[in-house]
Amino acid sequence: MRRQHGMMLDDRIVPYLQMASPYHLARLNESWFRLDESLVSAFVERWRPETHTFHMPFGECTIILQDVAYHLGLPINGQYVSGCLTDFPRFIEGGRPPWVWEMFSELPQGADDETVRRYARAYIMMLLSTQLFGDKSGTRLHIRWLPYVTRLEHMGQYSWGSAALSWLYRCMCRVTNRNVVKWPLASRWGGY
Fold first, then answer.
1. What is the rounded distance in angstroms from the CA atom of residue 37 to the CA atom of residue 4?
2. What is the maximum span of the chain, computed from C-alpha positions, in angstroms?
3. What's this model's pTM, rounded to 2 decimal places?
4. Do 13 and 120 contact (CB within 8 A), yes or no?
C-alpha cells in the first residue's frame, strides 16, 4: 500500500477509483508530483497567456488535451466539470464538511462496503484537491468537488482531463501576470 498526503491507497478502494476514473492518477508515484522549482520558473518565463503557448528557442509548443489524457490517464470526453457548488447545504453534515484528513488516514480492517466507499471518496477528494487542482497550501480540500464524489459511479462520465488542462492554463496565466509578487510554488501545477 502506498501513502499519499497521509492517506493509504488501500486495495479495497481500488475498484471505486477505477470506476470513478482517477485510478491511474492514484498509481502515479508520489515523487512524480514533486515540484522542480527551477523547471517551473523556466516554463513560466516562456509562457504567453495570449496564445497559451510556451515560446521556446525552437518555436512554440503547448500542452494539449491528449497530453493530459496520456500522462494522467484522465478521461477527456464526457460532461464538463464545473467548480460551482450551488447546492452546498446538501453536502454538509452538522454544519461542517464531512471530510477530515485524520479520519481517513487508514481504512480499518473489516470495514463494511459503505465505509470503504467513504474512504474511496476521501481519497478521490485528496487526489482532486492536491494532485490536479491544488491551491497554495497543497493540502486543503475544496468543497467544490463534493457533488462529484457523492456518486462515484457517475464520476467517470466527466471530462476530468479537460478540467485539469483548463486549470493549468488558468494558473499559468495568473502566475505570468506582471502584478503577481509571489506565486505559489507549493501547488502541483503551479496554480492557485
1. 21
2. 57
3. 0.74
4. yes
